[in-house]
Specification:
signal, T9SS C-terminal target domain-containing protein, Secre_tail, 10 strands, elongated, three-stranded antiparallel beta sheet, mainly beta
Length: about 140
């Protein structure tokens, strides 16, 4: 089993693993094909594809303006080289969901308190503004 055509996030160097549930092992199929043996029959639940999204959501320009927006398992995280003047979160219809002003260099927003969906995070620090779409 190997990767042939990559699309979307998988086309950007994303590491992809295949989990063999019968052997309880995971294999990095981004680096090499996975070979396995099986007896004839149906094995509809044997494999699972696993990947961890690349951490930085703002990788395209994060180094240019000194503001990073990314997520971990529990939080959206906004970091800046300088104190953040304002961090705000909007839903897709433009409603303000969260705002903090005059924050330190890092703001944690507990994403588990938000319903699943798309949000827009806007961060302002020293006349630099970064806006990113994020998924919960």
């Amino acid at each position: 089993m190997s990767l042939t055509d990559r699309e979307g996030i998988f086309n950007t160097g994303q590491t992809i693993y295949i989990k063999d549930k019968y052997l309880s092992k995971s294999f990095n199929i981004s680096e090499a094909p996975y070979t396995f043996y099986k007896n004839s029959g149906q094995y509809e639940d044997r494999f699972e594809i696993i990947y961890k999204p690349l951490v930085t959501l703002a990788a395209d320009n994060s180094g240019k303006n000194g503001i990073l927006i990314y997520k971990d398992n529990e939080n959206f995280i906004v970091k800046s080289e300088n104190n953040l003047d304002e961090v705000s979160v909007y839903d897709t219809v433009g409603r303000l969901i969260y705002i903090t002003k005059n924050a330190k260099k890092e703001v944690l927003i507990n994403k588990n308190n938000l319903p699943e969906g798309m949000y827009i995070i806007k961060a302002i620090s020293r006349n630099t503004t970064m806006t990113k779409k994020v998924l919960r």
